[in-house]
Design goal:
three-stranded mixed sheet; 17 helices; globular; binds N~2~-(3-carboxypropanoyl)-L-arginine
C-alpha cells in the first residue's frame, strides 16, 4: 500500500460569470436568471474556499477558467472574420447561442471529469475522463479545453478523450460518481449514479443528465474491477425536485455515504450492492437523511449534500464543508447540529460563502474535482496548478485587476468584455505556467 491522500482541484471562476438561466432542471439557475452577477466577488469567494482548505492541511489544486466567449463554437456555427466581427454578427444573428458561449460554467469542476485513482485501476494508472456534458449546450463546449487543462495538470496520468457527444453517452463527470474506501491508497469501491438508460425513451420532467451507458464506458476505460464497481439509478423524485446531478442529494468519503432518503430509485439495492462490492475491504457506513427531518425541497434549496466531505488531518471523524445557505435554512441547520452532536462519522460542519456560485446551482462540492493521489503522483502535478499562499496572493491581485464588480445581462454585448477577458487569461497562463498556446485565442 502506498501513502495516498485526496486533493481538491477547484475551478477558478472566470471573468464572464453571469446568471444566464441556461440550465433546465437546475432551480437556482432558472430562478436567478437575469440577476446582476459579480465575477470579482465570485472568483474571490472561490479562492477563499481554496485557501481555507489549504490552511486546514488538505492538498489543494486549481483548474484554470476557460476562454469565453468561446469563439471556436461560433466559428463552427458559420461565423467568420476577426474576433470582433464574429462577436458582433453572433449577437445579431444568434443571441441565444452567444449567451451559451459566454457561460463561465467550467468553474464547476465536479463536472470536469470522472476520476479513478491508481489504486482502483488494474493497470495502476490514475485515470481521468473529461465529461462531454452533452445535455446542456453551454456545458457541451467545455470538454476539449478541459482535456487540455487536465493533461497539463496531470502529465503522468491517463487522460481519456470525452465519450461520444450523443445522448446515449451523456456524461456529467464526478458529480454522479462517489468513491468509498477503507484508506485512500487502498482498493476502493466506485459508485456510478445515473439518471437514465441511454437507450430508453426520454422520460418526462426535468432532464436526466447521466446515462448508464456513459458510466459503464468510463468504468471500462478506467480499468476498474467489476466486482468493486456499482451502478445505481437516481430516483425520478430527486431529479424532478431539482437534483440535476446526484451530488445535489449525496456525498461520500472514506467509508461514509451521506445521502437523502429520496436520492436513489432503490436505496436497499444500492446499499446491498455497495456492501457486497466492499466485502473484504471495509464496511460502508450509510447516513441516510429522512424526508421527515429534511424535506427534499429544503435539501436542494439549502444544498446540504452539495458539501465537501473531508477528513481533516488529525481528526478521526469527517468534516462537512457546507454552503452558508445550509446554515440559514431551519431544517438543514437543525440536522447539521444533530449530526455533530451524535457520535456518527461526521463530527463537524463548517460553512463557507460561495453565494455567487450558489445562485447558479453550484455549491462547495460542485466547485471542486477530487483526485486521490499517492505522494509520488502529487509531486508530479504541474506546479502552477497547486495552491500555495504565493499563488493565492498573485491570483488575488490578478482578479482585482481584471474582473468586473458587476456584470448584468446587457453587459455581455460589450466587446470590451471579450477583449479584457482574453488579456486576463493570457496573463493567467503565465501565472499558472500553462504554456504559451493554452487557449484557442492564443493560437
Ligand atoms: O450544470 N449551472 C451548473 C451547475 C453545476 C453544478 N455542479 C454540480 N452539481 N456538480 C449546471 O447546471 C448555470 C449557468 C447559467 O444559468 O448561467 C449552470 O450551468
Amino acid at each position: 500500500m502506498s501513502l495516498a491522500r485526496e486533493a481538491n482541484f477547484d475551478g477558478l471562476i472566470g471573468p464572464t460569470h453571469n446568471y444566464g438561466g441556461l440550465s433546465d432542471g437546475n432551480l437556482a439557475s432558472a430562478s436567478n436568471a437575469g440577476l446582476v452577477a459579480s465575477p470579482k466577488a465570485a472568483a474571490l469567494q472561490g479562492l477563499e474556499k481554496m485557501k481555507a482548505m489549504h490552511e486546514a492541511g488538505l492538498w489543494q489544486g486549481i483548474l484554470p477558467p476557460q476562454q469565453r466567449p468561446h469563439l471556436p463554437t461560433l466559428r463552427r456555427a458559420g461565423f467568420t472574420g476577426t474576433n470582433k466581427d464574429i462577436f458582433e454578427a453572433a449577437w445579431k444573428q444568434a443571441p441565444r447561442l452567444m449567451k451559451n458561449c459566454f457561460s463561465a460554467s467550467s468553474m464547476w469542476a465536479a463536472n470536469a471529469a470522472t476520476v479513478s485513482p491508481s489504486s482502483d485501476a488494474s493497470d495502476g494508472n490514475l485515470h481521468l475522463t473529461p465529461a462531454n456534458l452533452s445535455t446542456m449546450l453551454h456545458r457541451s463546449i467545455e470538454h476539449p479545453q478541459t482535456q487540455r487543462a487536465l493533461e497539463t495538470a496531470f502529465p503522468f496520468a491517463s487522460v481519456h478523450p470525452a465519450l461520444a457527444e450523443q445522448s446515449v453517452f451523456a456524461d456529467e463527470g464526478a458529480a454522479n460518481h462517489v468513491r468509498l474506501c477503507g484508506a485512500r491508497g487502498e482498493q476502493g469501491v466506485e459508485l456510478f449514479v445515473y439518471g437514465r438508460d441511454g437507450y430508453a425513451p426520454t422520460r418526462a420532467g426535468y432532464p436526466a443528465r447521466q446515462t448508464l451507458q456513459a458510466s459503464q464506458a468510463i468504468a471500462r476505460a478506467h480499468h476498474l474491477t467489476p466486482r468493486r464497481t456499482v451502478f445505481a439509478l437516481q430516483s425520478d423524485a430527486a431529479i424532478d425536485a431539482g437534483a440535476f446531478h446526484n451530488d445535489v442529494v449525496c456525498v461520500g468519503a472514506l467509508q461514509t455515504l451521506f445521502y437523502h432518503e429520496l436520492a436513489f430509485a432503490d436505496t436497499a439495492a444500492m446499499q446491498a450492492d455497495m456492501t457486497q462490492a466492499a466485502e473484504g475491504l471495509f464496511t460502508p457506513n450509510f447516513v441516510e437523511v429522512p424526508s421527515s427531518e429534511v424535506p427534499i425541497a429544503d435539501a436542494i434549496k439549502a444544498y446540504l449534500f452539495n458539501s465537501m466531505l473531508v477528513q481533516m488531518p488529525d481528526s478521526d471523524r469527517l468534516t462537512l464543508i457546507a454552503p452558508l445557505e445550509t446554515k440559514e435554512n431551519a431544517a438543514t441547520k437543525a440536522y447539521c447540529d444533530k449530526l455533530v452532536a451524535c457520535n456518527g462519522p461526521i463530527g463537524e460542519v463548517r460553512y463557507v460563502d460561495v453565494r455567487q456560485s450558489m445562485r447558479n446551482g453550484g455549491g462547495p462540492a460542485c466547485l471542486r474535482l477530487r483526485v486521490t493521489m499517492t505522494e509520488a503522483e502529487w509531486s508530479q502535478v504541474n506546479q502552477g496548478n497547486k495552491f500555495s499562499p504565493a499563488l493565492f496572493e498573485e491570483l488575488k491581485i490578478w482578479i482585482n485587476a481584471f474582473y468586473r464588480d458587476a456584470l448584468a445581462p446587457e453587459d455581455l454585448r460589450d466587446s470590451s468584455l471579450m477583449e479584457e477577458s482574453f488579456v486576463a487569461l493570457d496573463e493567467l497562463t503565465r501565472i499558472m505556467g500553462l504554456g504559451a498556446d493554452f487557449y484557442p485565442f492564443q493560437t
